[in-house]
Predict the structure.
Amino acid sequence: MKGVDKAAALLVTLGTEVAAQIFRYLDEDEIEKISLRISSLKKITPEMRANAFREAYNYILAREYVEQGGFEFAKAVLTQALGEEEARRILERIKRALEGNPFEFLDKADPEQLITLLANEHPQVVSLILANLSPEHASAVFQGLPEEMRSEVANRVDSSVEKEVLKKLEEENPELAEKIKSLMFVFEDLLMLDDRDMQKLIRNIKDTRDLVLALKGATDELKEKFFRNMTQRMALMIKEDMEIMGRVPLREVEAAQQRIIQVAKELEEAGEIVLVRRGGGEEVFI
């Protein structure tokens, strides 16, 4: 499909309301070409719609990669995911248009289309998309995701986004909201680790700065749990670093906590520790 064909297919897929808003950002020549193409297209197949939608999706996702880690990072990720030629083509377009909100198009897309698009994506990609949607839209998309994906996605989104989405879910589907909460694993749940597993977790945290940051936002009970399961020397060093560090942005604390949670999950997947989730009941050992 040529560029104008893809644009026509995408606008038809998005519907008249969204298409009208997009036209406001185009010049007269572009509007004329696309309108002519829309009127001349005899049939837009489901495959054409899906291809146009996925290309637009890949484009805005690539822009986010660029903003997060620069062009080299985006190039590496996209090349691995899409191939060298497709990655190069997308990045060239991004260089010409790195302004505005790249997620505006997705926030106006039909939730069912997004659910279909995201169903097979990595949970980290899905959490990135949800973080840039309105709470109402994110909630609608979240509810439509495969059940096994929901808790993984919920564990990866920023806590502020998590609260907004769960709040909306509680209004629309309280039963699902409670189920998601029970499947999620948060930093405070590390209190339920037995001491041996906590010691193993601490040994596998490579950067002690993550411990310092994460514990600044922890309850006294959880701090004590960590300190009790490390050497006196290490505990003293971390306490001193916490005092010296002073005030830090909440987002840095939450990011450090998420990194530690990720280490814990990797250990759980390897069968080295047991994580107990809220509402999951007590595991029986014999």
Notes: Residues 96-100, 279-286 have pLDDT under 50 and may be disordered. The chain has 17 helices and no strands. The radius of gyration is 23 Å. The longest helix spans residues 46-82.
